[in-house]
Here is the input.
Amino acid sequence: MNSSSRLNIERVVTFEGARQIVLDQARQVHGDMSGREEEVPLLESLGRTLAKDIHADRDFPPFPRATRDGYAVRSEDVSQPPVELNLIGEVRAGGSLPEGFGELSSGQAIAIMTGAPVPAGSDAVVMVEHTERHGNSVCLLRSAQAGENVVVQGSEGVAGSVLISSGTLMGAAQIALAAAVGKARVRVQRRPVVAILSTGDEVVPISAMPASNQIRNSNSFSLVAQVIAAGGEPRQLPIAPDEPNRLRELIAEGLESDLLLLSGGVSAGEYDLVEPALSEFSAEFFFTGVQMQPGKPLVFGRATAKSGRRTYFFGLPGNPISTMVTFRLFANIIVAALCGNRQETTRFLQARLAADLKTKTGLTRFLPARLIGDLFQPEVELVKWQGSGDMASFARADCLLVVPPDQEQFHAGETVSVFCI
Ligand code: AMP
Ligand code: MG
Here is the structure.
C-alpha cells in the first residue's frame, strides 16, 4: 500500500502554483491576527513585527536643519556671485542663535554647522567650500537655490504622523527611528510557536553515537535555527518512529502549536506514514507534492487539533537539503505571516551566470550556489554537490540558483534568478 492509495487526495502542483497557494494562506493568516500582541523593551523588538503604529512625537526635523557646514544666507542675496555678506554670528548643532537675534536681514550671513537650525530669514546654506572668510564678512563664490542644503521642518514626518506602521519587521533602522521618538517600549506581535517533529526509525538524537544504519537528527536543528531566524519560537518534539500510534500522538501534540513542521515520511514508501497520520486529524491538503528539486514530496495543509484549533502543517521531505530549502521557500512565508510580518520574506534576485550550465527539464530546480562578482556585476556560481543529502556542500552555499522547468541549457553571462538563503 503506498501513500497515494492510503490517501484520498493526491495533489502535485508546480513550484509557482505551490508558492501561490502558500502566499494565499499567508494572506488569510494576516486577517486573523487579533489579540496576539505584547509590549517589550525597544531592543527586544529586533527581528519582531510591530503591532502598533509608531508616531512622530514632534516634527522631524523639529526645525529647518542644515545638512552642510557653511553659511546660512538669503538665496536672493547670492544670486549673482561673488557677493560679500556681513557675518553676524555662528550657530552649531546643539547650540542656539545669538542673544536677541530675530531674523537674518538682507546683506547678512550666519556661519552654520551640519545639524544646526537654519535661522529665520535665511532659506539656504552655501557650503563652506564655496566661500572665503574675511574676518567679519564672508565672500560667497556660488549662488544657492532656495532650500539648498536645508531640510524643511517636518519634512521627514510632521508631529502625529505615522513613522513606522504596524506589520513592519523591526530592524536596526526601525529601532533607531523608534528611539528617535522616545519609544523605550514598543508593542510587537507575539512569536508564533512552531512545533518541530522529525520522523524516521533511522533518526537518533545528536548526542547518540549512531550505528551504521542510523543518522543523527540534524533536521530538527536546521529547523529550529530557521524558525528562530523567521521570528518564530521553536518547540522541538521527540523524534517520531515510523510507527502510526506514536507518530499520531506526537502529531496531536504538535498541532496544539501555531504551526507544525514535520520532516521525513512524506515520500511514497511503505513507511512514509505522515500523510495518513495527518488525515486522521481532519487534514485538508493544499498540496501533497511540488514539481521541484530538491523538495518534491513537500506537503502543505491544515488539520484540527484535539483542542479544536485549526493548525497549518508542512510535511517537509527528510533529506536535509530538501528540508532546509522547502522551509525557506514555503514554511518561512507562513511563519512570517503568523508573526504578523506583512513584508515579503522570500525574494528572488537576478545575477549573471558565471559558467555554462546544463540541467534536466521538468522540475523547477534550486541548486546550491554562491554570489560572486563585484559591485555592479553580481555573478552566481554553482557549488559542487552530491544531491539533497550533501550538507557539507550546502554549508558552503549562500544562495540557490533557480532553474526554470522548461530550460535545459544555460550559457555563462546569461541572467538567472537567484534566491538568497
Ligand atoms: P524520508 O523523507 O523520510 O524518506 O528521508 C529521506 C532521507 O532523509 C533519508 O536518507 C533520511 O535518513 C534523511 N533524514 C530523515 N530525517 C532526518 C533528520 N531528522 N535528520 C537528518 N536526516 C534525515
Ligand atoms: Mg523516513
In short: The helical segments are 3-6, 15-30, 172-180, 218-229, 244-254, 274-279, 320-338, 391-394.
